[in-house]
């Protein structure tokens, strides 16, 4: 859907984005993270041609976007930024329908769309007749999201849209976004400095470092196989450790040396997750738990000590563990 091919952006001698290849699928929610100055906003802004690449190409639905007029392109791509810039002398209704109006929608279609959107973002209908300065920052940010959705664009770009909000409002807006994502087919590209926000929202995370895309993968794959030390530091060792523990199977924890002890009558398939088997193992009086291969043959045992060590490690990684 959105494809970067060897895209580079230079400002004089500064390489803001360096030789990036990236393929964002339709309906994916992609989140960009990385330290300040790593190229996130520049990359986002090249998608709707607010910034032009120095070299390389960007394709939208297979069409080189240099061949699409920037104004047409931007009308088809929703855009939300921090402190969204609502027009102060326009009512919320007028702010929301900016793009549909440019596209020549009828008054009744625009009214229906604005009313649908205001419900979708959980604000009362009367809000449509108010002015931006009558709303809180969080409410204005919701309007920014509604405005970006107004003409029903297939792609929405969001640059730190919730950066200035308190954690509770921010959490609520993230939940609204997840609802939107579940409800409609739409591609999101979202920049944030908040790693928790990235892991909450993303289907895929793009990690930027010095203008390079160092990793682009699902949150789970990034945690299980971080590309380098920078990624580990950025996403946090505790989150990585916790994901690694959550993905361990009983076969990973089993040892052929664990043979002496009271064997349990309960057996465990090799691919069972330790996190899901732990409770029954801890409550079992046995000290060895047989692990079966796909044919039902005992291949090894998990010891009670290994399970207790696992339990401690889960605690240390900050996982809530109840048995
Ligand atoms: N208009 C510009 N003129 C000159 N240099 C620029 C311009 N825009 C960005 N840069 C430089 O390009 C690099 C990447 O900037 P960019 O804003 O894309 O990073 P970022 O990861 O979005 O940062 P932040 O998280 O602080 O917003 C930085 O070194 C920045 O100084």
TrEMBL record:
InterPro entries linked: AAA+_ATPase (IPR003593), ABC_transporter-like_ATP-bd (IPR003439), ABC_transporter-like_CS (IPR017871), P-loop_NTPase (IPR027417)
PROSITE patterns to which the protein is assigned, alphabetical: ABC_TRANSPORTER_1, ABC_TRANSPORTER_2
Membrane-crossing residue ranges in chain numbering: none
Top-level taxon: Bacteria
SUPFAM superfamilies to which the protein is assigned, alphabetical: P-loop containing nucleoside triphosphate hydrolases (SSF52540)
ABC transporter domain segment(s): 2-235
Gene3D superfamilies (UniProt xref): P-loop containing nucleotide triphosphate hydrolases
Record key words, sorted: ATP-binding, Nucleotide-binding, Transport
An MF annotation (GO) of this entry: ATP hydrolysis activity
Signal sequence residues: none
EC number: 7.6.2.9
Family that this chain belongs to: Belongs to the ABC transporter superfamily.
Protein name: ABC-type quaternary amine transporter
Biological source species: Suicoccus acidiformans
């Amino acid at each position: 859907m959105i494809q970067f091919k060897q895209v580079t952006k230079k400002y004089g001698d500064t390489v803001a984005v360096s030789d990036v290849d990236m393929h964002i699928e339709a309906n994916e929610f992609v989140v960009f993270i990385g330290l300040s100055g790593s190229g996130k906003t520049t990359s986002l802004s090249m998608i709707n041609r607010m910034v032009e690449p120095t070299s390389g190409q960007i394709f939208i639905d297979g069409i080189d976007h240099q061949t699409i007029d920037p104004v047409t392109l931007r009308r088809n791509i929703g855009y939300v930024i921090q402190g969204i810039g609502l027009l102060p002398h326009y009512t919320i209704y007028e702010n929301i329908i900016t793009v549909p109006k440019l596209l020549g929608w009828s008054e009744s279609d625009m009214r229906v769309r604005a009313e649908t959107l205001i419900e979708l973002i959980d604000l009362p209908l009367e809000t449509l007749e108010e002015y931006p300065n009558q709303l809180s920052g969080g409410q204005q940010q919701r309007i920014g999201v509604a405005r970006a959705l107004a003409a029903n664009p297939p792609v929405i770009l969001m640059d730190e849209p919730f950066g200035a909000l308190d954690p509770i409002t921010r959490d609520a807006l993230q939940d609204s976004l997840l609802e939107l994502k579940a409800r409609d087919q739409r591609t999101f590209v979202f920049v944030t400095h908040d790693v928790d926000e990235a892991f909450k929202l993303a289907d895929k995370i793009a990690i930027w470092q010095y203008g390079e895309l160092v990793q682009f993968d699902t949150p789970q794959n990034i945690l299980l196989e971080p590309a380098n030390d920078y990624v580990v530091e950025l996403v946090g060792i505790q989150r990585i450790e916790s994901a690694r523990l959550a993905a361990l199977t009983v076969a990973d924890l089993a040892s052929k040396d664990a043979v002496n002890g009271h064997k349990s009558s309960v057996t465990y398939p090799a691919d069972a997750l330790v996190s899901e088997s732990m409770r029954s193992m801890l409550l079992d009086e046995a000290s060895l738990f047989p692990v079966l291969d796909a044919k039902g043959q005992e291949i090894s045992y998990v010891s009670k000590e290994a399970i207790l060590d696992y339990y401690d490690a889960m605690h240390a990684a900050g996982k809530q563990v109840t048995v």
